[in-house]
Prior knowledge:
The complex is a heterodimer of chains A (471) and B (311). Chain A is mainly alpha-helical. Chain A contains 17 helices and no strands. Chain B has one domain: SGNH hydrolase (Rossmann fold), CATH 3.40.50.1110.
Amino acid sequence: MLFNSLIFLIFFPTVVLIYFLLPHRFRWIFLLIASYFFYMNWEPVYALLISFSILSTWTCGYLLDKTNNVLRRKTYLTISILANFGILFIFKYYNFINETVFSTLEYFNMRWEVPNLDILLPVGISFYTFQAVGYTIDVYRKDIKSEKHIGIYAMFVTFFPQLVAGPIERSGNLLPQFREEKKLTAANLSAGFKMVLWGFFLKIVLADNLGMYVDAAFNNVENHGGTTHALASFLFAFQIYGDFAGYSLIAIGVSKMMSFTLMTNFRRPYYATSITTFWSRWHISLSTWFKDYLYIPLGGNRKSKARTYFNLFLTFFVSGIWHGANFTFIIWGALHGLYIVIEKALGLGRKKEKNKLSFNVLINIVITFILVDLAWIFFRASSLTEAWEIITRIFTDFGSQLFIKWDIFFIAAVSMMILFFKEFTDEFYPKKFELLNNKNLYVRVFSMALLLCIIILLGVFDSDKFIYFQF
Amino acid sequence: MKKLNKKFLYKVFLFIAIVFCVDYASGIVFGKLYKTAKSGVAFQENYIMNKTSQELLIFGSSRAAYHYIPAILKDTLGISTYNCGREGTGIYYHYGVLLSTLERYTPKVIFLDIDYRDIYVGEGIFGVDALKEHAPFYHSVSPEFDSLLSLTGEKEVFKLNSNLYKYSSKSFKILTGNLIQGRDNKQGFRVLTGNWNKTIDSLDAEKLAVDEKKIETLQKFIDKAKTNNIKFVFTVSPYFKITPENLYKPLIELAKKNDIQVLNHLQDQRFLSDKSMFNDELHLNKQGAQLYSRMIASEAYSILNNTLIDR
């Protein structure tokens, strides 16, 4: 079930209504059923996988709390990690690794044929396995007590707003909220609704319109010149931002309307003044996950400089692998790892951002954006050859005839101007020029209504996918 | 629940009221702008749906729009002609145009140019999706027209209750259509000037399956024409592609069943052997369109002569 589907428009208010009408002690049961229903709408059989993830991590968490024996604790943690990353490996990476091994051996005139698995990637598997594994690590580290109630724990893993594409929640933040008796409040409904509206704008108006141009260029690389590819690559940066930040914001907003608070996942990433700060603004729930559960355990920056650089590079390399079973994602991750290592070595990117506009800040924003955008080409391209072809064309064929789609350009210009106005003022003039949160009731309500009208008028309602669902 | 105070409910009411007002006003504004468009798709669609009065109408996709020159047909047949061909549309869309036309007047002759995708299974522009192009005319033609639009699905019909949604994919075209002065002195015909320089290819038709719903719609089209005493002709314009012999078999069977002529130039050697007639594999260029229109006009003359002689 997609957030931008009519069925969700019926599903969500029904869930909210019934949830708040039920006595607190029954609510988790209803929410769990609703979450499973939401997930099973894609492919019912994959509910078994998520149930396996829940059972394995919950059991390991339970056992971890029961013992202080170091060896046993390590064993339980290892079982939990292997079980969850095992299913992730089988469903997401097995075919890729099998094919890579096969073609590598074939290169050396050796044959080692193992059949591929005929399976589809279950929606959201990378997100919920990471969330569940994060819980076990938290219990192992004794950051939290294990959750004794398997129903409440299942709720933590399957909570429908963030189940399929995050934010990847932390047990310390989300788990206790299922025990609290939530109240339906006007403030939460209003705040959540604004997030949902802005999320839909980012997704349906910005991302889906830009996507039509981007797809036309990236899906026919050889038929377009460097100018078109430069523009398509520029637009893709905003498409993926609108798509993913939009989804996250809808998830956070929907949760907020039910009085649940999820973590912020995006904070104006294209205003970052360095790659280091870009990663404190982009997909925050994943980057902090990697920081807490991979980078720091590897030693973080507590060891030698060389080791810090290695840890940083490895973290981003793994982040690339997390995104997908393709060399394009690996190169994308490695490229970001390289950027960060260079920044660190040059002593750049460490300064805390002051949110004040200056010429230096502007230059840094532009440089950071160009670097990020260059990496996005690998992320979007279907193969390394294709990515290289696009980059070559951009640098050798710039000035060639532009593929023109005036209606998309018009909507892109309008939506990017709205995005620019909102984010620029939020970044450099916080609490000023606010429309959706204006102090005046009429300005506030009129802005929200107008935003909805813009969404209906300029939105693409046929899109049936979010880019991050594939991960 | 108790926390939902009066002020909040007032805000909700205000929000909904503003959205309704903007939506209602947009319907009026866009509706007027749609009708006053002087160029582009908005002008073209509005003309096709609301203004045609010619005796011969040509229906079809982009292949119709680029292949039939009304001036040539008019000169040969002696009847006023308009090319209603529209890019990215299929049989469902054409049937919608026919329903709208018949609400206003009855043309004497209709040529329906058939693309093979009007016969076989396939979604997108040749499927029911093309009906979304008719969204601005929902509730303004006839109940039959509205029920045709309902083929897009219940959800789509629900969304069509919003005026903003009706015009959602056309807002830019409506605005520019009002800002840019256009001239339609070619009676709907659109010119392509490119020259195709690639070698001829074969159409892979192995996986094609006849779409019964499209055939049903073609039959409805025929029935409507017959009921209204319209002389109806199927036309198949050339492709620069080698196609299987029986590609149009379902259409020919349908035509036989209904006693309708098919002017089939699908594999006409005069075109197949001369790529300079084509802009691309699917479309003739200006030179090709001129030759093809002359051929069709002369063939149509002999077919229509008897029926139109008493005019």
